[in-house]
Automatic annotation (TrEMBL):
The lineage of its organism: Bacteria, Bacillati, Actinomycetota, Actinomycetes, Micromonosporales. It comes from the Bacteria. The chain crosses the membrane at residues 36-54, 66-87, 93-112. It comes from Luedemannella flava. Keywords: Membrane, Transmembrane, Transmembrane helix. This is Integral membrane protein.
Amino acid sequence: MTPALATGILVGSLVLAVWALTAALRERWINRGQLALAAVIEVAILVQAVIAASRMIGGERAVEQATFIGYLLTVVLLLPAATVLAYMEQTRWGAVIMSVAGAVVAVLMLRLQQVWG
């Protein structure tokens, strides 16, 4: 795990969560900017996952290996799944889905850092 990248993902996902929640409260659907931010966050998550996988192959281990792998798989798959669902639900509830996904990604990144340490 790279702490700086994890922190960037955490902050970016919180920004996405607040931005999407603001859209939901205004009864709006997600916009292209939010989709672009979700894509940037997902690329950063994939980079972090590759780094973590290469370090595990190299011999480093997380404190709880199975938990770490579960969190890592969840964080990689969550944002794309939520984006598809949010895109299919073209009401304010799509923005709510994106907001919740952003908050969950932030929590997962925090837990990944804790379990790795």
